Amino acid sequence: MSSNAIEVKDLRKEFVAYSSRSGLKGAFRDLFNRNYKVVRAVNDISFTVKQGEMIGYIGENGAGKSTTIKMLTGILTPTSGRITVNGMNPHREREKFVRSIGVVFGQRSQLWWDIAVQESFRLLKKVYGVSDEQYEAHMGHIIETLDISALLDKPVRKLSLGQRMRCELAAALLHNPPLLFLDEPTIGLDVLVKLKIRDFLKEINAKYNTTILLTTHDISDIEALCERVVMLDEGKIIYDGSLEKLRAQWGDEKEIQFQFSSPISYQQLAVLMPDSDVSWTQGNGPNVWVARIPNEEIVLSMLIAKVAQTFRIQDMKVNEVSTEEIIRNIYEEGVVHG
Ligand SMILES: Nc1ncnc2c1ncn2[C@@H]1O[C@H](COP(=O)(O)OP(=O)(O)OP(=O)(O)O)[C@@H](O)[C@H]1O
């Protein structure tokens, strides 16, 4: 097997969406020719994922994330393009393929609703052909780390969402797959469970070099886990790189908030650094002004020095532009950056 867990080349998926005409006359005409339009959900994307990488696959609703994952897991066939996952074609070598991946889709369960969790585990163990020795060696640790031993004899329908998600994760890893797909694994979970799941994923990744591809709307999941993000917009990859670079490229501004001891006018502030890219706006509260500046050390120290020389400052705060905000900006601007 090559060292790439996932190889995707010029991958495309189109859906044909029919629209029905209204009324009896419309229905009659629909019999002969229906109105349809082609939706290109995934538009010729290419990327590779190395074994052991943890990748955040992100994008707005409808960007094409689920469609990609469904193709990568062999649920949907591509319209065109090539996919190799764990050295296989996901839908051609179905049976062998599913044994090489683990999948957790936030809203869909692979556990049986009415039977005890451990019965589900036992069934999956059979399906995946996991030996007793393998199971003991591997699952004991997983059950302990996810803290689910007290849940094993409960039917899934009796579990809370957080409890169920932990059991889903254990189920997805039962056969110790080298590749794990997670779709919104922490959605709706409380902070402690989220942290537990993140720690667990980090541990699995470190211990087994498991590749993890994660879709999430929770950027803090990405910050905690992924060095690389692939961002999708309208079926196209608009960013593929490190979270750090994304920040550096886009988080290129800082905000400094000053609270002055007495009222100051905009003109007084505007003349401080007339030749630089500093913009001032009034903040919340009395005598509060916010300067937005380019994220450069020298501009920051000059500004602070000038302001401190000229006015009496009661309080000062520097805000980094958050990743959340950076990503929102990208969506709004829709700019393509490599
Ligand atoms: N079975 C289908 N038939 C027709 N159109 C579809 C089908 N599945 C997805 N689409 C369309 O393809 C586009 C991409 O959808 P997809 O579900 O992949 O987005 P997503 O990024 O996963 O969004 P979300 O975050 O909401 O899950 C959307 O415009 C969607 O309406």
From TrEMBL:
The keyword Oxidoreductase does not apply. It comes from the Bacteria. Transmembrane segments: none annotated. One of its GO terms (molecular function) is ATP binding. InterPro entries: AAA+_ATPase, ABC_transporter-like_ATP-bd, ABC_transporter_ATP-binding, P-loop_NTPase. It holds the Pfam family ABC_tran. Keywords: ATP-binding, Nucleotide-binding, Transport. Residues 26-259 form the ABC transporter domain. This is ATP-binding cassette domain-containing protein. It comes from Ectobacillus funiculus. The lineage of its organism: Bacteria, Bacillati, Bacillota, Bacilli, Bacillales.
